[in-house]
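Final report, closing paragraph on structural work. Over the funding period we assembled a curated collection of sequence-structure pairs, and we close with a single example.
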Amino acid sequence: MAIEIWGGQCVHGESVVQGSKNAALPLIAAALLCGEQTMFTNCPQIHDVEVMLSLVEELGGSVLVEGHQVMIDSHTFDKTVICQDAVKELRASVLLMGACLAKFGEVTISYPGGCSIGKRPIDFHIHAFQKMGAEIVEEEDKMICRCITPLHGAHIQLPFPSVGATENIILAASLAEGETIIGNAAREPEIVELCRFLKVAGAKIFGEGTRRIRIVGQKKLCGVPWTVCGDRIVFFTFAMLVAGCGGSLTLRSEDLFGEKEREIWHCLGGEETREKHYVRLEKKRPAKAISYVATGPYPAFPTDDQSLLLPVLAKANGVSTIEEKVFENRFRLIGQLHKMGANIDFVSNRARIIGVTKLHGANVVAWDLRSGAGLVVAAAMADGKTRIEQENLIERGYENLVSRVSEIGIRAKKCL
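Its predicted structure, as stored:
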């Protein structure tokens, strides 16, 4: 499937920010640790969530979905082998390792997949589980993990503040014997969300949101109701549509700007007005070039947002520089933006963007979720029609994308 977008119009109107993909996926894995039913509200209706729920069912869990409500009953969770093709398309499936090891002391899992944005080895996960007592055999297409003695706490120093590794260790440590300390832990808001959920369920976790997290393992956790937080990447996507196209939007959402994202939004001529349940985003001034911005672990500028910023800088007045410090393949988007008239060159992990007066429509290809979303922003900014192939990759993280952009004044349709 593809999306066709006719650009060149200001955005206007109102929309809603969906529940966070990057929060929902670890929360679904965490629900398997709870001995009762867990009810999530505001769960995004996206492909990656569907895949994760199918894996929960493969493990024996019971799943009931009604709109944005998801009920998971882990009473029937009794299997530890996850080797279907779905694992290979979803990076977050690796989080089921921590849940299975915590609950049963064993798991066999295919190597996880996800977007082709660069090397994302799971060495950090494997080394952490080995320190916690797991024996791991790596075969050509799967890993076999077993604990001869009960999973136990450990002091784990991560070489890099990996979000996935931090989440996986937290999941495993919540039911492990003794105390686990994670040094150089990831600090992302989704980590904090996971820890808050687990604490309500009965886990003992301290220091979430800092580089040092301490978990004291418990005998059991309970099922609890939980509302998934809003998606900060989707929020930033809307902000870049306003910055790139002009106009204003009212979002039914909390203010989800991080400090660095807010600074960039203001440089691009945007202003925000916050109310209790709404945020109004408005383009007030022409976008200025940003001399230098680098991606990095939270609270630095998120790598997921880089692909959304790139097309806006392509029309900003002046020369901008982006350094990508997380994933080496994020700049695959640049080749597609060249087709639309952008003046961007890059060497290694650094891109130099010289602002042009206009972009034009073209036939382009989404190589991954975030580059696809970046192309949607570029297409909305461009003159004429843009056709984006591999629209299915964008649907991995965006709920009802075509209808959401259509309701804010962007002419778009899905097509073969």
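Confidence is low (pLDDT under 50) at residues 114-120. Residues 2-18+230-415 form a domain with the UDP-n-acetylglucosamine1-carboxyvinyl-transferase; Chain fold (CATH 3.65.10.10). We thank the funder for supporting this effort.
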